[in-house]
Write a structure and sequence with these properties.
The complex is a heterodimer.
Chain A: E1 3-6, E2 10-13, E3 18-22, H1 36-44, E4 52-58, E5 66-72, E6 78-82
Antiparallel strand pairs in A: 1-2, 3-4, 4-5, 5-6
Chain B: E1 21-27, H1 31-44, E2 49-52, H2 76-96, E3 107-111, H3 114-129, E4 135-137, H4 139-145, E5 161-165, H5 173-186, E6 190-192, E7 197-203, E8 206-212, E9 215-224, H6 230-236, E10 244-255, E11 263-266, E12 271-275, E13 280-287, H7 299-312, E14 321-331, E15 338-341, E16 347-351, H8 361-374, H9 388-391
Parallel strand pairs in B: 1-2, 1-9, 2-6, 3-11, 9-16
Antiparallel strand pairs in B: 3-5, 4-5, 7-8, 8-9, 10-13, 10-14, 11-12, 12-13, 15-16
Classes of the chains: A mainly beta, B alpha/beta.
The structure holds flavin-adenine dinucleotide and zinc ion (ZN).
Flavin-adenine dinucleotide binds at residues 27-33, 52-55, 59-62, 64-68, 196-197, 225-229, 233, 248-250, 284, 327, 329, 353, 355-359, 405 of chain B.
Chain lengths: 86, 405
């Protein structure tokens, strides 16, 4: 089980969190202007690196706030934790 | 216990030095890569083929999975390819001349809520329209198929019924990989182990070869079969895939007398169970939530599936966990595979089978070999093209493929 440090509550078990996938994926500024391919890419394609990955976690069983984590997807080492809106 | 296992095999294939060039290079020596190589040789007469495997043959998901085989998916597109696979399974031991311990002991998918019941009944009708054997059972009938199933109405999520596919079942996964490997090798395919592909060379939109830990190897056609590592390989060709790699865990108990005569799966209480030929109970559930390549997951996921199993099968209370493990599975947004051509000429893609690709092994290999040989999707593979994620023609199998694999 991962041990993740909530920026507001401190270190808690993974079971207190909900996973949110890749961080920093902005909603398209002009969705109606996108081609089908661009829209498909926005909806369905995310980074999937073997190594450091910037991702979102929500402390659902605690403060219920979202934050960002950089975690190595091979070793599970947590490299950075930050607050942020996307 | 019940059945005598075949002798442990001696060497089943050569261990050749890779040549400098092949007509077809397959990346990934799991079930799909080996089956693809076999059918390229057997169905299409293409034997100038090498399978490149970074570790040892069948060290990935093919030997980590829980071997549930069934074809009772919802949509006709899925029924097409999974049923093709099931038909091939039914003749595979004879075809490969190798024991696979394929056992059609049936698969029950339990329903625990009125919505589960509606979905299950719908799937049974859809399956029949697609030519897949399927029955709807009430709780008493389900208990006749699986006498240790707890159908007490007192359960937190009582069993309200089940879909049943009698032709579903299990096989012995390492034998499946070895059987394909042995047969492909005999037809002249080079199986090259400890050969990691580290780069893909592309000139004027065509693959010319790959770089590997055992040197450069040229190719007329390059076929990816890397399961959990598909995104990593696709990135070497400049492609981004709609795939996320997750840990998927499973566990076995100590060896027990035969108690579990079929395969039982429940999406709602999150567990599935069968009993392997040797006697161990084999259990699994859904993926760990986060992306991960580490081939391990959290114990809480195992604890939850054991709690669910205990509620459904109180008799398991005295069993012990012998071993848990994980593989890295390639999950797509619609829980269906990606099989076909890519934007790069002569680069082919077979991935996204996620938590459920073992059962597809012969069917995927069959269709992929055709796709590679003819440079054109096999008709059963056509619905699973990569471009469905921009056309929107998804094949949504979340209902049939969540916890059930
Ligand atoms: C715990 C678990 C339970 C499962 N249960 C079921 C089930 O009950 N029923 C079912 O149908 N499916 C199940 N699955 C899914 C099934 O195992 C997979 O969908 C299927 O095995 C994937 O195809 P494969 O056998 O070719 O994959 P793999 O055996 O993973 O083969 C891919 C190979 O590619 C190699 N590779 C990766 N990168 C490189 C590189 N750069 N160079 C060279 N080689 C490379 C890997 O080492 C690996 O050997 C389960 C999976 C897991 C993990
Ligand atoms: Zn918090």
């Amino acid at each position: 089980m991962l041990l993740i440090e909530c920026p507001w509550c401190g270190p808690r078990d993974e079971t207190e969190y909900h996973y949110g996938g890749q961080a920093h994926v902005p909603y398209p500024e002009e969705p109606a202007g996108l081609t089908d391919e661009e829209w498909g890419r926005y909806l369905f394609v995310r980074e999937n690196p073997k190594g450091p990955f910037a991702e979102r976690w929500c402390h659902t069983a605690g403060c219920r706030r979202w934050f960002n984590v950089v975690r190595d997807t091979l070793t599970n080492e947590i490299l950075r934790i930050s607050t942020g809106s996307t | 216990m019940t059945e005598v296992l075949p002798e442990h095999p001696d060497f089943l294939w050569r261990n050749p030095e890779p040549r400098r060039r092949y007509q077809v290079l397959i990346v990934g020596g799991g079930g799909h890569g080996l089956a693809t190589a076999y059918y390229l040789a057997r169905n299409h007469g293409i034997t100038d083929v090498a399978v490149l495997e970074r570790g040892w043959l069948a060290g990935g998901n093919v030997a980590r999975n829980t071997t549930v085989i069934r074809s009772n998916y919802l949509w006709p597109e899925s029924a097409g390819i999974y049923e093709q696979a099931l038909k091939l399974w039914e003749g595979l031991e004879q075809d490969l001349g190798y024991p696979l311990l394929f056992s059609q002991r049936g698969v029950l998918n339990l329903a625990h809520t009125p919505q589960d019941v509606r979905e299950g009944v719908r799937r049974v009708y859809a399956n029949r329209l697609s030519g897949v054997d399927a029955e709807w059972l009430d709780p008493v009938q389900a208990k006749q198929v699986c006498p240790i199933l707890n159908i007490s109405p007192e359960l937190r999520y009582p069993v309200l019924g089940a879909t049943y596919q009698p032709r579903g079942g299990i096989a012995k996964h390492d034998h499946v990989a070895w059987g394909f490997a042995r047969a492909a090798d005999a037809l002249g395919v080079d199986l090259v182990q400890h050969c990691e592909v580290t780069g893909i060379d592309i000139h004027s939109g065509r693959v010319t070869g790959v770089r590997t830990t055992r040197g450069e190897i040229g190719a007329e056609k390059l076929a990816l079969c890397a399961a959990g590592h598909s995104s990593v390989l696709a990135a070497m060709a400049g492609l981004r895939l709609p795939i996320q790699s997750h840990p998927l865990q499973a566990l076995v108990s100590d060896l027990l007398e035969p108690v579990q005569p079929t395969v039982v799966m429940s999406n709602t209480v999150h567990v599935y169970v069968s009993q392997a030929h040797k006697g161990e109970l084999v259990m699994g559930a859904g993926i760990d939530s986060y992306n991960g390549y580490g081939q391990r997951g959290g114990l809480h996921v195992i604890e939850r599936q054991m709690a669910a199993a205990l509620e459904l099968f109180p008799v398991f209370a005295r069993a012990h966990v012998l071993r848990t493990w994980a593989g890295t599975v390639d999950v797509t947004p619609d829980a269906s595979a990606i099989l076909g051509l890519t934007p790069v000429a002569n680069l082919y893609l077979n991935c996204g089978w996620g938590t459920g690709g073992f059962k597809a092994t012969p069917g995927a290999g069959w269709c992929y070999a055709h796709t590679i040989a003819h440079d054109e999707p096999h008709p059963l593979a056509a619905p699973f093209a990569l471009d469905r994620f921009s056309t929107g023609a998804l094949v949504d199998e979340h209902g049939a493929a969540a916890v059930a694999h």
